[in-house]
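Q: Structure tokens for this one, please.
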Amino acid sequence: MEAKVQQAAAGATAKKGNKKKVLKILERITESVFFLCAAAAVLALSVIVIFLFIQGIPALREIGLWNFISGTTWQPSANEFGILPMIVASLLATFGSALIGGFIGLMAALLLAELAPNFLANIIRPLINLLAGIPSVVYGFFGLMVVVPMIIQVFGGTGNSLLATILILAAMILPTMVSLSETAVRAVPQAYREGSLALGATHMQTIFRVTLPAAKSGVLNAFVLSLGRAIGETMAVILVAGNRASIPTSILDPVRPMTANIALELSYATGLHAEALYATGVVLLVFIVIINITAHIVLRNKKEG
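A: Here is the predicted structure, written as tokens:
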């Protein structure tokens, strides 16, 4: 009888040991899959960066980095490649749309997270998220058929302008800004709100002086991602910007951002012209990196403070 009990105990111990071995193998396989996925993302980014620099550096050497960045004339037929007007257009359109879309998106996020009843939030949230699924060319077509004529009626001019670009990009970044900002606001502990209300603050004072400052890291991340979405947009910009390569002196002037310049001319460009377009992509990538590094430094300093 004792022998049978010992055999059963030994069998159970062996089964537990085998089960642990299987679990360890599964954990190692899972960790390997996670590592491969992360490595694939890093590899994809590395390949894109290397490709851009290989294609664009020859043009920067031949034209000259300063001449390329500070030049105001883009005329491939005369071998004149200056992208300053496109840099200015990209920055104005990006930051203008981010300010408008960022403000509207943040207010909408506060409404969904702090003020709206659940039934209303459950209606508004899917509608805002639906904006993310609309193709960019549809935004551009809407801007061309609705926004541009509206600008002509109100302000005059051609309609295809920096203002039209800013308005369309502001609408396009709303889903990113609203979704990420709402998540950041909801992540603030409820004890912060209760403590503020217990000290006599009103609901609105609590939102703007307690909840929003506590969620500033997530809100800033949402703003940076919105900037990246705006600065990289192409199709909608082509349809509403006017595509004139000159420095705008008014918000109603036609502009040509860097992304639009690449998309418009890459299909037929050859030689130095094509290399200059790749170099434009390098400059665009550098701007995006600078924006992300700046945001990272700001967040780190605020956390340390």
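A few notes: The first strand starts at residue 74 and ends at 75. The mean pLDDT is 86.
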